[in-house]
Amino acid sequence: MPERILQVATDMSGQANEKITEIKAVTRATRTLALNALIEAARAGDVGRGFGVVANEVKDISQRVTIITEELEKMFLDLAFDLERTAQTARGDRFADLARYAVELMDRNLYERSCDVRWWATDAAVVDVCEHAHDDAIAARASERLGVILDSYTVYLDLWVADRDGNIIANGRPNEYRLKGVNIADQKWFQDALRCRDGGQYAVADVARNSQLRDAATPTYATAVRKHGAAHGEVIGVMGVFFDWESQAPMIVKSLNFNDEERERTRVLLIDVHNRILAASDDKGVLTEKFDLKVDDPAMGSYLLEDKSLVAYALTPGYETYQGLGWRGVIVQASKPVK
Question: Does domain 2-89 have CATH number 1.10.287.950?
Answer without folding.
Answer: yes
